[in-house]
Write a structure and sequence with these properties.
7 helices, six-stranded mixed sheet, RNA Polymerase Alpha Subunit, Chain A, domain 2, seven-stranded mixed sheet, about 450 residues, 5 domains, alpha+beta, about 45% strand, elongated
Length: about 450
């Protein structure tokens, strides 16, 4: 040991000795203070002091003996050497779910046969393995110059990994097919999933999409399989109105997803709104421009139903919406587009426009007799009438008239004024088919005698 080492050691020993003396004085003061306090606390403090004193004495003895200190340094050096040497040993690990991409393929083509992901075997030291796990590596195949056709024994390469370690892709050489890329535009709809997992009792309003159509890319045979293109709206844990980024999906006629195609954009932002309640509203068409000798035999809409959204109190007052349909705007296929709906201002609606497809036939009529008359008056009152049966003529297309029976027709007299005992009131008729017109033939009026019940 040289003089500098000896001076350093002596200095450290002197420091330890002074610390022991200081601890002894401190302990004496503590003991004097605690002697008059809780005896259990005093015993715990004495035990702690004893253990600390024992550790100090042990360290002092080791450091005071130069041979012991040299032996301790040797042991620590050996432990350090062994741990470092162990890090240099070669180990194996596998990186899973590594993305595989195709590079430099012309935009005019698409490729099939390349896996979405693969695994990489890494051989190296622990440090190298850890660095490999933290890297943003990927596997690629370079398709520069490839054209339409089938190719075998395609080789893959790795990018994004540092040197030093050994890497091997756990994907055999594969065969690929390259096709000419085709495109087609499809109307866009939506598909809702996990609606039962919403965190709310509110009602989802009909989603409104910012796009009417989307361009789909793929090989010709895949595009021909497409029946529906939709944005998939996942309502899992949705609890309030929000905007969701929703992916595009394509389905065949059996509702199987087609995954070998792509879209001109990956997602679409969909504005979702929630309401307290909803109510289905009947659409009553009012035809404009119908000739005297024409009748509507069928009408269909591009929506399955019309809904209003709002508070239950506001929805109570609505059950029907009259919609003007101008037949002058009908094309050669009977389609009338962009029909505006006059939605009340205090509610929201699933749709604000619709499209109707109308079929016209020659107008005809059919008469029904023996229809019972219902007297409608406030509950708790009675009445008598001069007759209880009437005759009604229905006007419309023969197709619709042939499907009507007497059970589909109702006749009634509405009593609203209870202050007059004997009244003559008009007979009204309705039909379950709102495309047929009802005309009361006889009697057009009824004499009604009102009997007011007194409590």
């Amino acid at each position: 040991m040289n003089k500098n080492d000896k001076k350093s050691s002596d200095f450290f020993l002197d420091y330890m000795k002074k610390q022991q003396e200081k601890a002894a004085n401190t302990n004496g003061d503590i003991n004097n203070k605690e002697s008059s306090s809780n005896p259990i606390t005093s015993k715990i403090i004495h035990l702690i002091n004893f253990v600390m004193e024992l550790i100090n004495n042990l360290l002092y003895s080791l450091l005071a003996n130069r041979k012991t200190m040299a032996l301790l340094a040797l042991v620590l050096a050996i432990i350090f050497y062994v741990s470092i040497k162990g890090e240099d040993q070669t180990k194996n690990d596998v990186l899973d779910d590594i993305e595989v991409i195709a590079l430099n393929l012309s935009d005019d083509y698409i490729v099939e046969g390349i896996p979405d992901t693969t695994s990489i075997l890494v051989q190296g030291t622990s440090l190298q393995l850890q660095l490999a796990k933290l890297s943003n590596c990927y596997v690629y195949v370079d398709l520069s110059g490839y054209q339409e056709g089938s190719y075998s024994d395609i080789s893959y390469s790795i990018a994004g990994l540092s040197g030093g370690a050994t890497y091997r892709i756990l994907t055999d050489k594969s065969s690929i097919d390259i096709y000419k890329k085709e495109s087609a535009v499809y109307p866009l709809t939506y598909k809702i999933i996990n609606e039962d997992l919403m965190n709310t009792d509110k009602v989802l309003q009909k989603p409104k999409l910012s796009l009417d159509s989307v361009t789909v890319y793929g090989k010709e045979s895949d595009l021909e399989r497409i029946s529906t293109v939709a944005v998939e709206i996942d309502l899992d844990h949705v609890s309030d109105s929000t905007i969701l980024s929703c992916p595009f999906k394509a389905y065949d006629q059996y509702d199987n997803e087609i995954t070998t195609i792509s879209f001109d954009q990956k997602t679409l932002n969909v504005d979702l709104k929630l309401a307290d309640a909803s109510k289905q509203i009947n659409i009553k068409p009012i035809f404009i421009g119908l000739n005297d000798n024409q009748a509507v035999s069928s009408i269909s809409y591009n929506i399955s139903a019309l809904y209003y959204y709002g508070s239950e109190k506001k929805l109570e007052q609505y059950s029907e919406l009259k919609v003007e349909i101008n037949l002058a705007n009908m094309d050669e296929n009977g389609v009338i587009s962009n029909i505006n709906l006059d939605i009340p201002s205090d509610v929201d609606a699933s749709d604000t426009t619709l499209q109707a497809t109308v079929t016209l036939e020659s107008k005809t009529s059919k008469t029904f007799t023996g229809i019972p008359v219902e007297i409608r008056l406030p509950e708790g009152n009675e009445s008598t009438v001069s007759t209880t049966l009437c005759t009604v003529k229905l006007v419309g297309s023969a197709t619709r008239l042939n499907s009507i029976s007497i059970e589909d027709i109702s006749c009634y007299v509405a009593v609203t004024d209870l202050s007059v005992e004997d009244q003559t009131l008009p007979v009204n008729a309705t039909c379950t088919d709102n495309l047929l017109t009802c005309e009361v033939v006889s009697p057009v009026e009824l004499s009604v005698n009102v009997h007011i019940k007194n409590d």
